[in-house]
Amino acid sequence: MQHLTKEQRYQIKAYLHCGKSRPFIAKALKVDKTTIYREIARNSTKRGAYNPDFAQELATERKERFAMNRKFTASMEQFIIKHIQQEQWSPEQIVGHCLKHSISMVSVERIYQFVREEKAQGGFLYKHLRHQLKHRKRPVSGKQETIKNKVSIDLRGDIINNKERFGDWEIDLIVGKDGKGAIVTIVERTTAFFLMRKLPFGKKAEELATVIIDMLLPYKEFVHSITSDNGTEFATHQKISKKLLAQFFFAHPYASWERGLSEYTNKLVRQYIPKKSIFNLYNEDEINDIQHKINRRPRKKLSYENPKNLFYKFVNQKVAFAS
Q1: pTM of the shown model
Q2: Do the domain assignments include residue 121?
Q3: pLDDT tens readout for residues 193-239
Q4: pLDDT tens-digit profile of 43-54?
Q5: Both 195 and 304 in a single domain?
Q6: Could you give the CA distance from residue 64 to residue 62 in angstroms, rounded to a whole number?
Q7: Which residues make Cβ contacts (< 8 Å) with residue 168, sequence separation at least 6?
Q8: Are residues 62 and 85 in the same domain?
Q9: What residues make up the domain containing 98?
Q10: CATH code, domain carrying 196
Q11: Is the dihedral of CA 29, 35, 37, 43 positive or negative?
């Protein structure tokens, strides 16, 4: 990632004042355009104004925070043991919490390494993890496929982050027993309205893109953005984005809280389709019935309105969302 100087930040301010586009500014400063998008998104004021002094202050503070000593200290070990053993936090949740509150912490992979070492010495810490290391047979740092031209969630605007606009969606997959079979779930962020469909070809990216487009095309006018995790099944995100005329963002690895509504909705699905289920046992009508039941549930966060009614109020009447 490229780091901007204070002088470059003043140049950005001047170009913005002249009405120049982000790509133009990137070319003028000889940096990648994502650097400019990220800079403006992360370092602007709450009102959306870009001030170079304020941006420099934020960048310096962030640099100092991440430059903290990352050695695995005794206090880190105590923190990890306490929150796994007593609170059943995952390593991802521990790291996410520490980043948010500027607490020095090692990486997710290093925590898993510690848990594995503790297990090898006869410890039982791993039993407090939801998956009990069953999904950690290989190191996290192993060879991974990359997704080309990803746009980070860091570049997602506040209008999406704060759920101020109707038509921003989260997407995920639920996988069947032994990794066989998959269901795609898509949820709208302001209304919690939810779509799901069984994938006849599993997690194949091309076929998944076709299914997603087919599911959202009827609501194309109300699809402004989609946010997913980093699964390679979303490698054809540009095809989805182009067809639906929507932005496609990727959350950070091991940061499930960045797609909290999607994670919560998947847990609702698991009430009907438990883990280790064989997806072939569920036909299309049963999948649709589950979708309709979840959409008819009154939600506390929606003032006990149900997602279906609220969603179609937007679609049919285009009313403003009242939080």
Answers
A1: 0.56
A2: yes
A3: 999 999 877 788 999 999 999 999 999 999 999 999 988 999 999 99
A4: 887 677 888 888
A5: yes
A6: 5
A7: 160, 188, 189, 190, 224, 225, 226, 227
A8: no
A9: 74-128
A10: 3.30.420.10
A11: negative
